[in-house]
Amino acid sequence: MPRYAEMSKAELEAELAEVRARYGEMAARGLKLNMARGKPSAAQLELSLPMLDVLDSEADLAAEDGTDCRNYGVLDGIPEAKRLMAALLDDEPENVIVLGNASLTAMYDAMVRYLVFGALGSTPWGRLPEVKWLCPVPGYDRHFSICEDLGIEMIPVPLCEDGPDMEEVERLVVADDAIKGIWCVPKYSNPSGITYSDETVRRLAAMECAADDFRIFWDNAYAVHHFSGDPAEQDIVLDIAEACREAGNPDRYLKFGSTSKITFPGAGVAALAASPANIAEIKRHLGVQAIGHDKLNQLRHARFLEEGARLPEHMAAHGALMGPKFELVEKKLAEELAEAGIATWTNPRGGYFVSFEGPAGTARRIVELAKNAGVTMTGAGATWPYGDDPADSNIRIAPSLPPLEELDAAMDVFTCCVKLAALEQLVEE
Amino acid sequence: MPRYAEMSKAELEAELAEVRARYGEMAARGLKLNMARGKPSAAQLELSLPMLDVLDSEADLAAEDGTDCRNYGVLDGIPEAKRLMAALLDDEPENVIVLGNASLTAMYDAMVRYLVFGALGSTPWGRLPEVKWLCPVPGYDRHFSICEDLGIEMIPVPLCEDGPDMEEVERLVVADDAIKGIWCVPKYSNPSGITYSDETVRRLAAMECAADDFRIFWDNAYAVHHFSGDPAEQDIVLDIAEACREAGNPDRYLKFGSTSKITFPGAGVAALAASPANIAEIKRHLGVQAIGHDKLNQLRHARFLEEGARLPEHMAAHGALMGPKFELVEKKLAEELAEAGIATWTNPRGGYFVSFEGPAGTARRIVELAKNAGVTMTGAGATWPYGDDPADSNIRIAPSLPPLEELDAAMDVFTCCVKLAALEQLVEE
């Protein structure tokens, strides 16, 4: 089969008829498959079931420092949980605050604190005429929702193979003191799966910002989520904390992470790590918002994951379930779409997503076609601020939830929809 | 012994010498006792230990509607947890949002939302020149901290036997549209232990407020926390939701509650209940801040407490542990202080606290003396906004944590300190 771009009108029409017929057959099957969200599969959740046996009515419910985890107290987390989360956040336990069940909430609350209180003495952002935020695209829709909800203007910047387009970022932040920060998913980025290079990390840490209180929201959601046992060399991310200290901007970053995709999403433990000055400022307000977070769940996690020592083994088991799904996605996309030359996609070594680029102007149509054939994708546009992908070309593929056989069927539908949308466009032109 | 007020200078000096000697003996014992916070005792925590066996690796981890409680989702709570928290909040499950581990966080976040977004279309409170809040006194220090942290000006109003002084409240709210709300602990109030009368509830619901978006923060922290099996008739609080609806102010209230003092503080489940319009508004922002809360903990609680059916039995067991402590406090205060005529105190039928009024100008001294003798009390002033008790007379007694024998010793110290401070003042005058 030649590339679609090289086909004659008649060939395109014949291909369209064939693909449309195939689509009709698929749609008639009454499938109900979901590749919309980065949800772990049932098999992944089962890996953490033994954690539910760690604490029972006979267990020792005291933390190592004697804290009764059944009662009030301990704002920043029990020592063993701080060590666990420090391992995950690549930081020291004293720089960590263990929080509730979700890093999303930690990020939302951190942004709200800056709006209400400012950062280390700066004007509360909510009192400024405008606040802007850099959003590497494609990016994570829930990050963008936080900005939108809180009235922060989003500025998209391209995400490259090794992180955000740093020339563009540097150009923007030096010129406009209303730009207060940037979203970063430094490892296996959502959705493209790329990992930031050391140079990117250093430039983010060192760049000259018009806003003195510029903040990098470093969402290390997939810090240990590689498909193979050990991460590739290029997937070991330079520590943003160290880079910021070295660059003389020690308070520029906040690191976020959680065990959501390690144990149980929604019933895990989240945390942040930051500079001593930022930690002190956060604790001052957090101590009014909360007496302490769920220490029994902290204890459960710290013991089950052996304060981080068991993470490599545990994540290898996740990887063994995830890897084959990403291989299948890659295989299906290559088999069905490579020859036609109508799309590109990423092939990550970890994380939860593949970023797919179809022909301009087809993403919404592809997602609509898939939905009508029983396959739910992440909404087109979701990977852009305000849901507005100007090229209407990017789609996030989330292969984690369905079992392999369902994923196989879902990818057949998806690739068929891509072809159909592309052909519809080519024939109409 | 006559009342101190009737003693001669010589008699007072003799009494002072005697009390001072007794104080010295007590201080020499090296006690380390704590009546500072409303923490449940170890014996109370043990009542909920079986809850840790409810969910293990063999358990069915699906909610009744099939939701896998191990995975993402369900913003407002699984159905069985909504029923449990509706029972606690005296409301319908559809008006309930099940939240994280603490009603304190729920209240802080609700206040922040009003600052950032306003209430049902009103101007965001954070953009107003000033926001004021009514604070019945004596009251709960963590409520006051929320206002102070967020820059909301607190106006104290007297708390009477049947709730806030409603004439004062009505006079204030009708005259000043900067007054946006009031803290209420309607049952076994913190610290006085009083319960609001039906008339108080109706007047709060119906009063004319200059601010259209006036909100009652209804912290029903001790809804089921009576010492005897059944609450007294006067401890059955009129439903604020019903009263607000009847008065034509259906959106005026937000109810808050948690299982902190039912199961495990910090590892419990919190919730709010509100009108449909308020629930919709809260969900709109909460859905950005969180994907969902800890459903495994919701499931654990719903099953252990049988969606509320087991609450009466479970709270009776708490009451059987708490009742004798409050009896002991009452007995010690009466025995040691009644004759001297230097103090008054409350004698609640539920909750966690006794409110103690010593001679004006002695509260700080009493707390200092107690601390130096090894007994930590809640800080003097804590029951007033900004920690400023203008009479310096009110002290919160929190008898829940120490076992009976320790409480006995602590109350001996406390009553001795009260006498000593009173005598120091009388002799100096």
UniProtKB/TrEMBL annotation, chains A, B:
Keyword rRNA processing attributed: no
GO molecular function terms attached to this record: L-aspartate:2-oxoglutarate aminotransferase activity
Cited Gene3D superfamilies: Aspartate Aminotransferase, domain 1, Type I PLP-dependent aspartate aminotransferase-like (Major domain)
Keywords (A to Z) from UniProt: Aminotransferase, Transferase
InterPro entries (alphabetical): AspAT_Ic (IPR024551), PyrdxlP-dep_Trfase (IPR015424), PyrdxlP-dep_Trfase_major (IPR015421), PyrdxlP-dep_Trfase_small (IPR015422)
TM segment ranges: none
Protein name: Aminotransferase
